[in-house]
Design a protein that fits this description.
The structure is a homodimer. Helix content of chain A is 33%, strand content 28%. Chain A has four helices and seven strands, in the order ααβααββββββ. By secondary structure, chain A is of the alpha+beta class. Chain A has a three-stranded antiparallel sheet. The radius of gyration of chain A is 17 Å and the shape is globular. At the A-B interface, strand 2, strand 6 and strand 7 of A face strand 2, strand 6 and strand 7 of B. Strand 6 of chain A pairs antiparallel with strand 6 of chain B, so a sheet runs across the interface. The structure holds a DNA duplex.
Chain lengths: 150, 150
Amino acid sequence: MTVERRYTALIERLKHAGLRPTRQRLALAKLLFDPAAAALDPSARDRHITAEQLHDEAMSAGQPVSLATVYNTLHQFTEVGLLREVVVEPGRSYFDTNVSDHHHFFFEGDGRLLDIPGEQIRLADLPPPPPGSAIRRVDVIVRLSESESD
Amino acid sequence: MTVERRYTALIERLKHAGLRPTRQRLALAKLLFDPAAAALDPSARDRHITAEQLHDEAMSAGQPVSLATVYNTLHQFTEVGLLREVVVEPGRSYFDTNVSDHHHFFFEGDGRLLDIPGEQIRLADLPPPPPGSAIRRVDVIVRLSESESD
DNA sequence: TTTTTCGTTTAGAATCGTTCTAAGCTGTTG
DNA sequence: CAACAGCTTAGAACGATTCTAAACGAAAAA
């Protein structure tokens, strides 16, 4: 079945990343990477989610996972490149299912994040990294507020 | 005297921002904006400091200020534009004494921040802000790691 | 199979940075 | 000098995250 096939793909993805496909990790991977299974608009592939949110989703999906495991899993997924951590607000971390080169709009009003495709921002004249260090990543955060005119 | 004159300038700066120049606020302002008084290399004008650090500095400078006041003051200074908050790590806020247009190198190893003058990065093709919102600021964070080749 | 091993999960406690609370101060104004 | 508003404070509270130590489970070895 399609569903079966989908799970197999996720299992392979985890194995390939060196992570044992446990029940918990699979459940979280489904919620993160399989919008259909998560009853989401399939076009909404790029999710920006907090640990707390993912925990809630897992619970209401009938896949109880402890909060500690959610944290562990999010960090492991990030380490192996399945997720990317986005830091925009003090005291709260978002995890982004879009790991391709891109940037973010951040709505200061409601804390929402919106992807900006990488090609849509061109960074010219990046200064060279200080000696002894290498550029790991460049994050551009465009901070938005409600505009007074509408 | 020079020192007297310097304090006067700081007092004026606070008053002008609508903040009563209390003993505590003056002490913190001195540490933040007056490198000489803080026994710092005067060329090191751009400080990236956490509340905890500033609290420690005030204590060891013989100007006891409660941690709550440090937080209050940092936020007030930020509101009136004397400081700028920089968010790069989950669970820790830095306050930047450089409020001009600029960006940051962030050393993932030790959590240090280094300013990149605004002119040194050119952002081309910034996408328009979504309807109903306005761009408040654009933050560029160049994340660095130790380079393997020294 | 069964056993063993070692990674994984867990509840709950602990921790960390930050914010809140409620009381006392301080300093300005009338 | 009375009275008010603003400021500071210690300590409690908070929310997100991490830690702990014990139980569990997947999969390799026997």
